[in-house]
Amino acid sequence: MYSLLLKDILVQKKQFLYGILLAAIYSFAFSSNNLGGVLTVFVFPYIFVLTAASYEEKNRSEIVLASLPIKRSLLVMEKYVSVFLFAALGAIEYIIVVGIGNLFQLPIKFSTLTIEPVLIFGLAMYYGIYLPLYFKFGYIKTRWVNFVMFFGLFFGVTGLISTINKYGMNFKILNPLITFFKNQSNTAVANELIIMALLIYALSYAISVKIYNSREF
Length: 217
Known about the structure:
By secondary structure, the chain is an all-alpha fold. The chain is built from 8 helices and no strands.
């Protein structure tokens, strides 16, 4: 798997320069609401997973890999692992940008990067939905699905949070859920989110393996 992960990194080395720029832009644009680091970590996998998939489609390397004596389950696992690898690389690049900004005492208020359980849950949920579609239909047919999901997520989550904050307690269906989380400690909620993320990701992986094993090229 190491070689497969390294392949996805090496074929898009230039993207890391764009990543530095992206982290700098987010640091500046979202300095007031502490979202710069979170957005960088979340957006990195979107860019790198999609770019790696586009290179595979362009070079038809997916067909070559499927014909090699490599278990398809390993090929699937590499994609799932790469999501969090690219998220980690995004975190590193954001830290580099913050370090450079502080070194030169730039007049920018950098947000503190904290890897919240809700971010891990969000990544697991997002790619838990997208990757089975990718393995079923391929890059070309799912790139617009990914695009719609990505922007729908940001606008949808913002709207959902606003609605819950405004009307949440008036929705009877939400009352037990809201009460359940309010009565728990932050540690308990964090652990539950991480466990849910692992379960979602494991289920998604099993579905993707089943789909990919039955797929013909």
